[in-house]
Structures are given as structure tokens and as C-alpha cells.
Specification:
- The protein is of the alpha+beta class and 436 residues long.
- The protein folds into three domains: 89 residues, Rossmann fold (3-Layer(aba) Sandwich); 70 residues, ATP-grasp fold, A domain (Dna Ligase, domain 1, 2-Layer Sandwich), CATH 3.30.1490.20; 233 residues, D-amino Acid Aminotransferase, Chain A, domain 1, CATH 3.30.470.
- The chain is built from 15 helices and 25 strands.
- It is globular and about 60 Å long.
- The N and C termini lie far apart (54 Å).
- It binds glycine.
- The site of glycine has 7 residues, from loops.
């Protein structure tokens, strides 16, 4: 069987790694990923040029395409590939609106009475939003309606001082049509601990994976700018130290209800559904959905998958998905990023990665925004590579991941605190405070 992975980063490298032993693997990537280029036949090209990707898939008689990032989904890559006879692990353009159109997503919760939503309102003019915010006595979150690569969301109490600043930022979002819509979505800010559940979906069946927690702030102690994610962990029982089975099940129920609603309102959803939740005093609330694996969270769960990923892909495209088994192990992923990140001052510099030494420790490397050139691996301005380890518990996995990070040399840094007992306990105490 021939499988094509579309995408360039560590998430796609983890997907490709999970498939490599069981199929003839192809990749379509915008930069030459040092890991994927070693294990697949590849073409370098813009993943957003969906007709070209489909042409490549057709030429190579690809059976299944696995779409990594959201941008090609928004451009209708699945519709284009399916038109050309290639089955896909990834939703159609219409079903992917669960990520690409936040107003579609929130309306779905309202129209289908799905639990776990938030107070929200969509605006297309300053006057109405200003009036709303004058009367709203809680902090808010301002979100562009469309995709902004994780950079458009601003939170009062974090990036914005108060609801007055939220008004000004909302105006900017509307005026500049940020994310492709001259609209803004204002949501109530909810307090709690965030967690991620990713699930395989075949249009009607949903099989959830172990929960994970990402760390969006750039620096240790949850300081600094919000990034795409600096690292994440998962626990051996599939839950998180602050997340009970009951809360996990409630979140999965929200995702299953959403899957049903998407099928009615748009089209059956096939692929990976990523739910980002806030665990609050009143249970899990949905913060946002992504129509693809999380990055870094994919790196936590995929290496622990016992069911061959290829079998899951076949079941997704055939509509026969029933289960996915994972090892009962914890995992920790730490992202290595250029010094100064999220600024881009070290773009282009060489780094050294001793993959053999990392593998000897039992850890893995998944390459992200780096490129392989004749003289070695070069940084770009973004996250460089994910280092992942598993263990009997989070602390064991963390120790291995931390040791492995020492084998990467160059102008880079990572968050040493991701997965440490101290930080995990901080999350647990925070949740206890909220529940009391
Ligand atoms: N970890 C956040 C994301 O994948 O969007």
C-alpha cells in the first residue's frame, strides 16, 4: 500500500515514523525534513498548492493521503485528492470548518445543544462589539474567526490589560480581516487547566487517544510569549494528574456529539479531531477544535500506539474504525527552538543533532522547522525539533527527554520544566484551588 504524508514538521515526521514499516511511504513537504527525507520518497513543494499535491499523488498511485497541517485542509486538499481517486485521512474543506471557521464551530454547539461551550458572540462592526463589552462584566478572549497560525488569539489578563484593550484589538481584527474574515469572535475567559484530547474519526465512529497537556508559553514558569507549543506530556493511564476519568469521558462525549453534528451540518468528518479543553470548576469546556493532530501533542501519543497506524488509516477511510491500543506509558516531549524564539534572529544557523546518542537513551527526535542542506541541519525562525521519551511515569520520561536534549548543540533553548514533578504538581494544586 502506498501512503502519502502531506506536511513538513515534527507532527508529520511522527506520523511518517508511525507508518514507515508498514507501507510504501511518500511525503510532500515544503522544506526538506531531515527525518522524513530518510524514510520516504519525497517531493519538495508548497503543500498549499493542492492541485500539485494531487498530481503527485496520482502520478505515484497513492492509496491513502494523510494530511498533517490545517492550511491545505482549508484550501480543500481532501476534496481535490478524492476527486482524483485518493482516499484521505483528513476532513473535507467543509468539515474542516470545525477549525477554520470558529463561528461555524460555536454555532454548532448552540444549534445541536452540545455541552461544554462558552458564552460567545460574533461581531462584524465596532459599535456592536463595543456596546457588548461595556455591558459584559467578565474578562474575555478575542479570536479572529479564521486561521491565523496560532497567533491571533488574545486573552484579557494575559496579552490584553482589560476589556477596553480587547475592544481596540477586536477593531484591528475586523478592520484587517485577520484570518480571512472581517469578523471577530468574543468569548468569555474561563479559568482552569487546559488539556488536549485527540481522536481518530471515520465519519461516524470516534476513537480517542490518551490526553496530553501542552505548554504554550515560551519560557519556564509559563512566562513569555504564546508559541505553537514548547512541549507536552501524557500519563500512563491515558489521563492527566489533574484530570479524572469522569472529566475525560465528558470531554470525549462532547467530541462525539460534535462529530455527529458536523456530519449533519457539513459532511462526515474523517481524520483526526483535536479538542482543546479547559477543565473548569464546572467540568470541561471546549476552547477550540483543530482538524488535525496537535503539534507537539502528536509526538506524545503516536510513539505509544500499539495498533499499527496503517490499520487505523485503512479503517478511517473505509469507515470501519473500532479501536486503537496504546502502551500504558507516560511520555514527555520537549521542543528545541532557536535562541530568541519566537523572534527569528538565529534563522539559517547550523545545529548539531547527535541522533544516535539520543536513540541510545531510548528517546526519539522529530524534526520540525529545520532544513537539511549539504553541510547539515539549519534552523529557521520557528520550532526546530521535538525530543520525545516515554517511561513508566511522567518523571521517568522527563529525565530521559532532558538528558537527550543535551545532545543538541547550537544557538537553541528548550523549556527544562516541561514534565517535571514540580510543574506537574503546580498544575494539580491549581486545579484543586479551582475546585475548592
Ligand atoms: N499544540 C497546539 C496545536 O497543535 O495547535
Amino acid at each position: 500500500m502506498k501512503v502519502l504524508v502531506v506536511g513538513t514538521g515534527a507532527r508529520e515526521h511522527a506520523i511518517a515514523d508511525g507508518l514507515k514499516d508498514d507501507c510504501e511511504l511518500y511525503c510532500y513537504m515544503s522544506k526538506i525534513n531531515p527525518g522524513m527525507s530518510k524514510i520516504a520518497t519525497f517531493k519538495q513543494g508548497d503543500e498549499g498548492e493542492v492541485e500539485k499535491v494531487a498530481e503527485f499523488a496520482k502520478e505515484n498511485e497513492i492509496d491513502i493521503a494523510f494530511i498533517g497541517p490545517e492550511a491545505p485542509l482549508e484550501k480543500g486538499i481532501v476534496d481535490e485528492l478524492e476527486k482524483n481517486g485518493v482516499k484521505c485521512v483528513g476532513p473535507s474543506k467543509s468539515a474542516a470548518r470545525i477549525e477554520t471557521d470558529k463561528s461555524f464551530m460555536r454555532n454548532l454547539f448552540e444549534d445541536y445543544n452540545i455541552e461544554g461551550s462558552l458564552i460567545y458572540k460574533v461581531f462584524d462592526n465596532y459599535e456592536d462589539l463595543s456596546e457588548f463589552l461595556d455591558d459584559f462584566d467578565r474578562d474575555v478572549v478575542v479570536k479572529p474567526v479564521g486561521l491565523t497560525g496560532g497567533k491571533g488569539v488574545k486573552i484579557v489578563g494575559d496579552h490584553l490589560k482589560d476589556n477596553q484593550e480587547a475592544k481596540e484589538y477586536s477593531k484591528e481584527v475586523i478592520d484587517n480581516a485577520m484570518g480571512g474574515f472581517a469578523q471577530v469572535i468574543i468569548e468569555e475567559r474561563v479559568i482552569g487547566e487546559e488539556f488536549t484530547i485527540q481522536a481518530f474519526c471515520d465519519g461516524k465512529n470516534l476513537v480517542p487517544m490518551p490526553a496530553a497537556q501542552d505548554h504554550p508559553h515560551a519560557f519556564e514558569g509559563d512566562k513569555g510569549a504564546i508559541t505553537g507549543g514548547m512541549g507536552s506530556y501524557s500519563d500512563s493511564n491515558g489521563l492527566l494528574p489533574f484530570l479524572t476519568q469522569e472529566d475525560y469521558d465528558k470531554a470525549v462525549k462532547i467530541m462525539k456529539d460534535t462529530l455527529k453534528a458536523i456530519a449533519t451540518e457539513a459532511e462526515p468528518y474523517k481524520g483526526i479531531l483535536y479538542g482543546q479543553f479547559m477543565l473548569t470548576a464546572t467540568g470541561p469546556r471546549l476552547i477550540e477544535y483543530n482538524a488535525r493532530f496537535g503539534d507537539p501533542e502528536a509526538m506524545n501519543v503516536l510513539p505509544l500506539l500499539k495498533t499499527p497506524l496503517i490499520d487505523i488509516c485503512k479503517a478511517i477511510v473505509d469507515g470501519t474504525l473500532s479501536e486503537a491500543e496504546f502502551e500504558n506509558k507516560s511520555s514527555v516531549c520537549k521542543y528545541i527552538v532557536p535562541d530568541g524564539y519566537p523572534e527569528t534572529e538565529y534563522a539559517g544557523e547550523l545545529i548539531e543533532v547527535d541522533e544516535e546518542a539520543i536513540n541510545e537513551l531510548g528517546a526519539k527526535v522529530f524534526y520540525a522547522a529545520v532544513s537539511l542542506e549539504d553541510d547539515g541541519i539549519h534552523l529557521s525562525g520557528s520550532r526546530a525539533l521535538g525530543v520525545v521519551a516515554s517511561g513508566e511515569n511522567i518523571s521517568e520520561a522527563e529525565e530521559i527527554a532532558e538528558k537527550a536534549c543535551d545532545f543538541i548543540k547550537g544557538n537553541v533553548y528548550h523549556r527544562r520544566d516541561v514534565g517535571t514533578t514540580e510543574l506537574v504538581e503546580k498544575r494539580v494544586s491549581h486545579m484543586k484551588e479551582i475546585l475548592n
